[in-house]
Task: structure prediction
Amino acid sequence: MNGDRWRERARAIAEELIVPVANRIDREHSIPPEIVRRMAGEGLFGLAIPKEFGGSAASARDIAAVVEEISFGSLSVATDLAVHLSVASAPIAQWGTPEQKQRWLPAMARGEWLGAFALTEPGAGSDAQHLTTRYSSSPEGFRIDGAKTFITNGGQARVVLVFATRDPGLEARGISCFLVEHGTPGFTVARTLEKLGLMGSETTELHFEDCRVDRTSLLGPEGQGFRIAMSSLEGGRIGISASSLGVARAALKVLRESVRTDSEEWARAALARAHVEVEAAGALVERAATQKDAGVDYGLAASAAKLFASQAAFRVASKALELVLQGNADENARATAKRLFRDSRVLAIVEGATEIQELILGRRLASPPRAD
Result:
């Protein structure tokens, strides 16, 4: 199936099921099960999973198109899906053993099991080399102790990719990744976190206390967890860029509905700037996804897309809220503008904050050109 077909499927779900209830999702902090069932039925949860395990092995352009359209409807819905695809399913498909893939991926492709990615800690966010969650060898396999925070899908995921270090002094070289199943003794969901936005998406704090997993839970070689995390996040930045584009498009729609030909000149100028920002963000997302599909180094393009698109979403949503509150918009339009403004703020933080993207871009751009 080509990218346009996937986009059409996702757009239909967004327009028919998500947009009409997006503000209710925000208000009630929950996603209606019929939306999840429809996405599962259309194959969206299996986009990043190989065909032999029930997925569609979709291209990066396909996945970006789907995430963008779902984000246009609700960033909460899209976030749960994007995490499942980019930093849960995809790493298992890339790094898993045949047995791990067979155990996890078919049910994940059907949307029966969700995945989560547990890297961030209370004291280690952007500085992911210095984890405090520890693991050690045990007779059965490994023992994990520590805490993770800001984990999307943490309470509802069947499998969580948990990153831990055997020795903090080893920094990146000491980190390994483990597939920890929900219900494993010693693994608890400590609490659900309150947030400014993304109200329909569950964000949790996870605790691991004498959590014992067997040897088959190790994802990839021991000591390669940091590499797994960074490669997953690089791909995930395309997803966040696509989410940002979807939110920016939704905010632009609100803006267009608030500005008329007889509006003041400054309002029309704001609409013009917002249009250009959305178009530019779309071009950057397309470029990053196309480079990933081509099998070339897409890190620079992904960081550029993430940096610009996340900031564009916030700027367009901010202007949309400003104009809606100044006008005579109805309560639903006001609620939509407020939701988009609150949701847009997180986009510059997750999958590598703005400052991290600037560091990545600056380092790469200042390096000597690679020889062909």
User: Anything to note?
Assistant: The chain has three domains: 3-113, 116-223, 228-366. The domain at 228-366 is CATH 1.20.140.10 (Butyryl-CoA Dehydrogenase, subunit A; domain 3). The mean pLDDT is 94. Strands lie at 115-118, 134-137, 141-152, 159-165, 175-181, 187-192, 203-214, 218-219.
